[in-house]
Amino acid sequence: MLAPENILKVWKRFDEFPMETLTKAWLHANGEGSKPRSVDVMRKQREQYGTSGNCFDLALWLIDEFRSEGIICYPIGEHLGTEKAHAAVIAMDREGSRYLCDLGDQWIQPILVDPGAEGYTEEPLEGFFPGAYIAVSSDGEQAKIRYIRHNGKESQMLFNLTPVGEAEFREAAAYSQSLLRHPLVEKRIEICTGHNIVHWEYDQGTARVSSHTGLYRESEPHGQETWVTRIAQRSGIDRHIVQIALDTYAAVKKSN
User: Fold this and answer.
1) DSSP letters along 100-167, please?
2) How far apart are alpha carbons 198 and 239 in whole angstroms?
3) Of 132, 162, 167, 184, which is least packed with CB atoms within 10 Å of its CB?
């Protein structure tokens, strides 16, 4: 179920990238939030400010990186053009087998979704998603992903493996860029002891950590620390950008 080295090599370039909706709030505050950024602009802003982007930004960036290495890939998505939209990427190995690459949900690594490919299994596996086993059930057209927590709780997500037209995908990305709902930051964090990877998430004033031992609410900042400082430290995003984004979301919430 593991992706080949050429796909993993590109994937690992994004190991330190959070998925976040702070950048688009910052861009809206600067009057630049009307359309998605180009990948070149994303690269420049990450170098300057530590920003990355939402699931559409990350998918477009990942596609650009794959294609620069000659890897065949294409975008996929669910509920495009709605508030529930989610974007991901399919990358293909030299034999044409497909791998789901989902930076938006902060997967640890891609996973095979072709039922006829060598090594394909529907058994639960660890090492693909922080804090959960992953079980794939694919008929080649759709892949159901089960997220199995260590306490036995499960959730699932259905991915349509059919390519989304790139014009349609960019239109959906533009719609997502126009939405300012609430601040969200997700980041994979490697814990030194045992090299475990946990999933850290900030969502509307609370932070949680999902690990192999369970889901824990992180303590609220105290003393001189604020959410701005905490988010900046966890995500690597410039503190000034975080402050502007949180202020923008707070103003949107108040106006509603």
Assistant:
1) EE-TTTT-SS-EE--TTSTT---S-EEEEETTEEEEEEE-SSEEEEEEEETTS-EEEEEEE-SPPPHH
2) 23
3) 167
Q: Which two tokens stand for residue 133?
A: 């086993």
Mean predicted lDDT score pLDDT of the chain: 92
**Ranges of CATH 3.30.2140.20 domains, the chain:** 5-173
Other C-beta atoms closer than 10 Å to the C-beta of 65 total 19
User: Each residue of 10-60: pLDDT tens digit?
Assistant: 999 999 999 999 999 999 999 887 788 899 999 999 999 999 999 999 999
CA distance 16 to 46: 11
Domain 5-173 - what CATH class? Answer: alpha beta
CA distance 143 to 172: 21
pLDDT band at 215 (very low <50, low <70, confident <90, very high): confident
Please give the structure tokens belonging to residue 154.
């499960």
Chain position carrying tokens 């559409």? 56
The helix (H) or strand (E) run that includes residue 202 is: strand 196-203
Task: With cut-offs at 50, 70 and 90, classify the pLDDT of residue 74.
Answer: very high
DSSP state for residue 96 in the 8-state scheme: -
Share of the chain above pLDDT 70, in %: 98
- pTM value is 0.92
